[in-house]
Amino acid sequence: MSLACSIHEVRMLLLCHAVAVAVVHIFIFSENWASAKNINFYNVRPPLDPTPFPNSFKCFTCENAGDNYNCNRWAEDKWCPQNTQYCLTVHHFTSHGRSTSITKKCASKSECHFVGCHHSQDSEHTECRSCCEGMICNVELPTNHTNAVFAVMHAQRTSGSSATTPYLPALAWVFMLPLL
Fold it and tell me: Secretion signal: which residues (predicted)?
């Protein structure tokens, strides 16, 4: 009789496990549980993996995406090549403001010389190009001459910028001394 009880218990445990797995899958794959439309691309931070070279960075990258949301959402998460310094965004849209294609990528300084917006009389489309400097800085789309710019950081990093580092051990002793 104890063998029959243990087989019954095992079957009940397996059934409970299967039900729990099914419930978790329903929550995971349910559209109402977590909506991808709620992604805040401004707070995206790349993982703390080793950088391939000093001052390396990442950009949102896509080619001929239909809209900015999908471009940012499915952007490849890879480091930019060493010969690039900026993130480039090229936005094509109609005279009514509807996006027709979006391309984002890592870019060299020479690729960023032609920023701004240009209207094509033949196709009645507008192309706006912008470049920016910094980790995944190309979140937004350029749509006019105000935001189709070449944005660079004014403060450059230098190797001697950590002048306060020698004071950290002294500061640590100030806080540790009362505990001793």
Answer: none
> Strand locations in the chain, DSSP E?
62-65, 86-94, 99-107, 116-120, 125-132, 150-151
Average pLDDT over residues 134-153: 93
Name residues whose C-beta falls within 8 Å of residue 102's C-beta, 6 or more positions apart in sequence: 62, 64, 65, 66, 67, 68, 71, 89, 90, 91, 92, 141
Q: Quick: pLDDT tens for 72-103.
A: 999 988 899 999 999 999 999 998 899 999 99
Cα–Cα distance for residue pair 84/102, rounded to 1 Å:
20
Residue closest to 90 by CA, chosen among 75, 98, 102: 102
Backbone angles phi and psi of 9, in degrees to 5: -65, -40
Segment 150-170 mean pLDDT: 54
